[in-house]
Amino acid sequence: MTVNIYDEANRLESALRQSDEYQAVKAQLEAVESNEESKAVFSQFREIQMTLQEKQMSGQEITEEDIAKANELAAKIEQDENISKLMQAEQRMGQVIEDLNRIILKPLQDLYGQDNQ
C-alpha cells in the first residue's frame, strides 16, 4: 500500500494547529496585539530583527548603532510580560518542530547508518 506523504503532512499541519503549543503561541500573540505598548515594542523588535538579517545575508556590516538599538529593544522586551510570554510559547513550539524534524529525518538517518542524536 502506497502512502501519500502529502496527505500525511497535511494531517500533521492540522494536528499542529490543534496542539497546546500552537494554541499558546496564538493566545500570546493575541495578547501582544491587543496591548498597544506591547504591539509597538514587538513591531520594532521584528523590524530590527529583519534589518539585521538582511544586512547579514547581504554581507553588510552590522553597526554599533544597530547593536545598541537591538540591545535597547531586548531590554524593553524582557520588561514586557506579554512579549516575554509569547517568546516562551514560541520556544516551546520551536522545540516541538525540532522534535518533529528529527522524527521525519529518522528514515534517512537510518538508511545512511547515522546515529539519531
Characterization of this structure:
By secondary structure, this protein is mostly helical. The chain has a single domain, classed as YheA/YmcA-like (YheA-like fold). Helix content is 84%, strand content 0%.
Estimated share of beta-strand residues = under 5%
Order of helices and strands: HHHHH
How many separate structural domains?
Answer: 1
Q: According to CATH, what is the topology?
A: YheA-like fold
CATH superfamily: YheA/YmcA-like
Task: Name the CATH class.
Answer: Mainly Alpha
Shape: extended
N→C terminal distance: 31 Å
Q: Which architecture name does CATH use?
A: Up-down Bundle
Q: What's the story with the biggest beta sheet? A: none
Q: Which percent range fits the helix content?
A: over 70%
Please, what is the average pLDDT? Answer: 92
Structural class: mainly alpha
Question: Tally the helices: what do you get?
Answer: 5
Which stretches of 5+ consecutive residues score pLDDT under 50? none
DSSP, total strands: 0
Pfam family, one: Com_YlbF
Organism: Macrococcus carouselicus
Protein name: UPF0342 protein ERX40_05715
Family: Belongs to the UPF0342 family.
